[in-house]
Every structure is written in structure tokens, then in C-alpha cells.
Design brief:
Structural class: alpha/beta
Oligomer: single chain
Shape: globular
Radius of gyration: 19 Å
Helix content: 25-40%
Largest sheet: 8 strands, parallel, barrel
CATH class: Alpha Beta
Distance between the termini: 35 Å
CATH superfamily: Aldolase class I
CATH topology: TIM Barrel
Strand order of the largest sheet: 3-4-5-8-9-10-11-12
């Protein structure tokens, strides 16, 4: 649904319509994937989640991307009460959510996910798997019911790698069958696919380890399988990052050379988009004149979604105008105010992000409770 308001002239690119594959977006704003751990214990989406996504659709966003959705009844789940798309019951639970979002006039993509070594809560198994048996850095996220260090994963076997690729493909098919407009594969932020790409978590000596050409191979295999699993008209993309939820300092050791190879290989797949996550924002990297998203566009030739500190509409407009990305994904700004696009267009200051919104747990219910407390305080 298009947004209107006096600020549209100030942000002409941000609020211009565009297409992502075959899907038309009313503007360039994207609700970035955000883990909310508000599903049932066995991974079914809930009515609370449906109301949460419908609110974004009413808020004027061009596109919604779901939180990360796990893909199998094995090792992919990362968090307790994380939703899945691994079985019929989970799949069916998403249907009313998709329908509610569509009634409000917005498209919605599903992000599909495998936690790998960063699993800190799993309904199905009591172990984790990863490219190599390397204990993850840092500690489990307390906002997602975690505590203490991560466990040491078991090394994934080649047969299991094939099973994971097939599970990603099956999840994409399930998402499309239930009405999602597109699919994004979570290949970033320290989860399984990114563990293959990262030097210290990938100590393999086979064709999936060692040099960057090998470490990116799992991304290429998964994306090739997912792209082939659904109709070519359905948008399919992958999220890429350098940093991880448990390591905000990591950078690709090969710098611009790594970017050229990673994005170039993804570009060879064709008919996919790339969602680049950069928690420090869209500043130039590796001594180049481009952000990571900009390098993604330069080296892949693919449609790019830029992400990172883009809740400032002036910065979002700059990123788009300077072709750092074709769309902008916003996380904290979206979480803080589901009506962010409408308010920005109307020249109204949106609600700023407050850590209390996701304290003590980053659930939909806790955020709703925070809003009720704020409203009660404003009325006293």
C-alpha cells in the first residue's frame, strides 16, 4: 500500500515503487528479519505473530521479511520457541499470517535458516553440527533464553550436508505453497552457512574448506538448490554478512578480493537477490569507495538489499541514491515503530528504539507489554 505525506519529496528514492524480481513493492523499505521467539514449543506460528506481521503491513512497508524460520526436525533450530517450516503443521500455521499481510496490501518473504553451531535451544535434538568441531566464540544470547557458553558442535558429515541442502529447498517449496511471495536464505551472521565461509569456524581440508573459493562453495550449493526448487518467477535471495551475532569484529581476511569472489560466484547463479547485513552501517569497506552492499552490487550485478543503521531516512535515501543498494532493510527502527514508513512520509518522528522493547526476552509479547507501559505512562 503506497504511503503519502509531505516528506516524500525529501526522500524520493526511498518512497519510489520498484520490483524485486516479479514482486512489485510500493516503496524501497523492507522490514529486516528479526528473531522474536514467539512460536509454540513445536515451532508453529501463532495468532500473536500474525497480528505482529499484519501491523507492519499496515505501517506502509514495501516488503516484510520474516524472522529466521528453521528448516528441518533435526539440527536447524537455533532458539526455543523459534518458528519452523519443517512439517505440515508448521507450514499450515503460516497460512493465516500470509493472508493477513496480503489483505493489508504488502508482500512478504520467508527467511529460511539453519543455526549450525549457534543453536542454543532445539525441540528436536540435543546436539549441534557445524563445518568443524569448533566451539563458538562468546556466550548464548540471554534475550533468546540462552545462558553460558555455546556447546561444541559435531562436524557435519557429507551426507548431512546434502540433507541440509535438500531441507533448504523443501522449506522454500513449502513457503511458496503457503503463499509467501519470495524466499530469503539466511547465509549470514554466524549461522551454519556463514560458518562455512568464516576462516576460524571452518577447518575442513576437503573441497569445502581452506581457500575462499572452497569456503563459499556451501553457499553456492544451497542457493543453487533453492533457486531450482521453486518457480523462476519467485524471488529467491541470500543474506550475507561479515560479522556474527557472537562476533561483531570479524571481517573477511581477503578484503575486497574476498568480496569480488563471494559476490561474483553468487552472481553466476543468476536470478537471485542479495541482502547484505552490516551492523556498523553502509560506510565504505576494505579501502574501497563502496559499502559491503555496494560491493555486492558491483561484483554480482544482482539486486541488493542494504542493511545497517538505515533507520535514519536521510541515510537510507543516500544509500539508494548512490546505488549502494536497491532496497533498504531496517531492523531496530522497524521494531521500535511498525509505522515507520508512514510516519517518515508524513514528517512525523517515529518512536525511537529502546532496549526495554526486547527485555528481558525479545518476544512479541514483551514488546507489546512495553508499549502498553509507555501508553499508560503517557496517560497518567
Amino acid at each position: 500500500m503506497p504511503v503519502t505525506g509531505p516528506a516524500l519529496a525529501t526522500y524520493p528514492t526511498l518512497f519510489s515503487p520498484a520490483t524485486l524480481g516479479t514482486v512489485t513493492l510500493a516503496n524501497r523499505t523492507v522490514v529486516s528479519p528479526m528473531t522474536r521467539t514467539s512460536a509454540t514449543d513445536d515451532g508453529r506460528a501463532t495468532d500473536v505473530m500474525g497480528a505482529y506481521y499484519a501491523e507492519y503491513a499496515r505501517g506502509g512497508w514495501g516488503l516484510l521479511v520474516t524472522e529466521a524460520i528453521y528448516i528441518d526436525e533435526k539440527h536447524s533450530q537455533g532458539y526455543l520457541r523459534q518458528p519452523g517450516i519443517a512439517n505440515d503443521a508448521q507450514q499450515d500455521s503460516w497460512r493465516p499470517i500470509v493472508e493477513a499481510v496480503h489483505r493489508e496490501g504488502a508482500p512478504i518473504f520467508m527467511q529460511v535458516f539453519h543455526a549450525g553451531a549457534l543453536s542454543q535451544g532445539n525441540h528436536w535434538v540435543d546436539e549441534s553440527i557445524a563445518p568443524s568441531p569448533v566451539t563458538p566464540k562468546g556466550a548464548q544470547a540471554e534475550r533468546y533464553d540462552g545462558s553460558g557458553p555455546y556447546r561444541t558442535p559435531r562436524q557435519i558429515t557429507r551426507d548431512e550436508m546434502d540433507e541440509v541442502m535438500a531441507a533448504f529447498a523443501a522449506a522454500a517449496r513449502r513457503a511458496v505453497e503457503v503463499g509467501f511471495d519470495g524466499v530469503e536464505v539466511h547465509g549470514a551472521n554466524g549461522y551454519l552457512m556463514d560458518q562455512f565461509l568464516t576462516t576460524y569456524t571452518n577447518q575442513r581440508t576437503d573441497e569445502y574448506g581452506g581457500v575462499i573459493e572452497n569456503r563459499v562453495r556451501f553457499h553456492i550449493d544451497v542457493m543453487t538448490a533453492v533457486r531450482a526448487a521453486v518457480d523462476p518467477a519467485v524471488p529467491v535471495g541470500v543474506r550475507i554478512s561479515q560479522t556474527k551475532v557472537n562476533d561483531l569484529a570479524y571481517a573477511w581476511p581477503g578484503g575486497d578480493d574476498d568480496a569480488r569472489l563471494v559476490f561474483g560466484k553468487l552472481g553466476q547463479i543468476g536470478n537471485i537477490f542479495i541482502d547484505v547485513s552490516a551492523h556498523l552501517g553502509c560506510a565504505p569497506v576494505f579501502g574501497t569507495d563502496k559499502s559491503l552492499a555496494g560491493l555486492g552490487k558491483r561484483y554480482s550485478g544482482l539486486t541488493q538489499i542494504a542493511n545497517g543503521k538505515l533507520h535514519d531516512p536521510a541515510e537510507a535515501e543516500r544509500v539508494l541514491a548512490e546505488t549502494e543498494g536497491d532496497f533498504v532493510a531496517i531492523a531496530k527502527g522497524a521494531l521500535a515503530d511498525p509505522a515507520w514508513p508512514r510516519k517518515i512520509a508524513a514528517g512525523v518522528e517515529p518512536i525511537p528504539f529502546d532496549p526495554g522493547m526486547i527485555t528481558p526476552l525479545a518476544t512479541v509479547d514483551n514488546t507489546s507489554a512495553w508499549r502498553r507501559r509507555q501508553a499508560a505512562g503517557a496517560n497518567t
